[in-house]
Amino acid sequence: MDKIIYFDVQEDEREFLKLHNEGKYDYYLESSSLTGLLQVPDEYKDARIISVFTTSRVGKEVLEQFPELELIALRSVGFNHIDLDYCNEHNIVVENTPNYGNKSVAEFAMALLLDVCRKITRAYLEYKEIDIDTKNFTGQELGGKTIGIVGLGAIGTEFAKLSYAFDMNILGCDIRQKQNLIEDYRVKYTDFDTLLKNSDFISIHAPLTKDNYHIFNESAFKKMKNTAILINTARGEHIETQALYNAIVNKEIAGAGLDVLESEETITDADYLVDINRLTEGTLRQTILNTRLQQLPNVIITPHIAYNTKEAINRILDTVMSNINSFVEGVVDNNVN
Prior knowledge:
Order of helices and strands: EHEEHEHEHHEHEHEHEHEHEHHHEH
Number of strands: 12
Shape: globular
CATH topology of the largest domain: Rossmann fold
Helix content: 25-40%
Number of domains: 2
């Protein structure tokens, strides 16, 4: 019977995983993340399959503890937390779960945009403290404004549909063009610089690659409108945090709504809470920057939860079990390496 270890398991995932593994696999459910600080128990080391979420960071020091490993079944689309070079060298297949959170993430991105535009969180907090000055809460409408969407894959497409419903003018930047978005939702494809210069709002929905790392940098912010608002529910590394902080403080742009940050793991991961010496000079600087950014009144930051709906979690679990079952039968689905 194949051995599977599930890490990062939430309470609402347990019943599903028990139902779909009982009697079929030798399985273990771990609530902890799989990181460098976790000493893998001896009874796990002969696992053929492990499954992790993005809160695990699966590098060489972790993978070396699983000499029999053949499959990493991700419960996420992204895979930048996995050492793919090591996996390729040791014939470990890595499979992701695509398309589970298209609507969830798109809806959350729109919620962030509305929040920043209408100052909802700020108004709530001040009202809660009985410190009310309605002049502080003057916002702006979305209808008739121009939204720039960077990345029009599955999530970006859903966001474009929502933007169309808000009667917004839509600019899109992607290496591929979808004719249905042009015809049905009036998306106008353009280059990145034109999108920066003409957008009232920009929302990022691109996967992280070496080509779009820090694509939003000092140069990019100087091209944007000083009334522009930036939304990011993709990956924190798309944005150079120091440049974003400076752009907002210097009023080169008007604000931001962020569900992801550079080095966000230093705030949430147990590794850094237990052993602060793991902080490098770079990650310490980044953590301070993230904290300073969070203190700005025209910035909303949430803890990487855009995907987190009941519907999306169910789709994740359905896909990961399908991936595992197919792999055991000799079929590789959703391979990323």
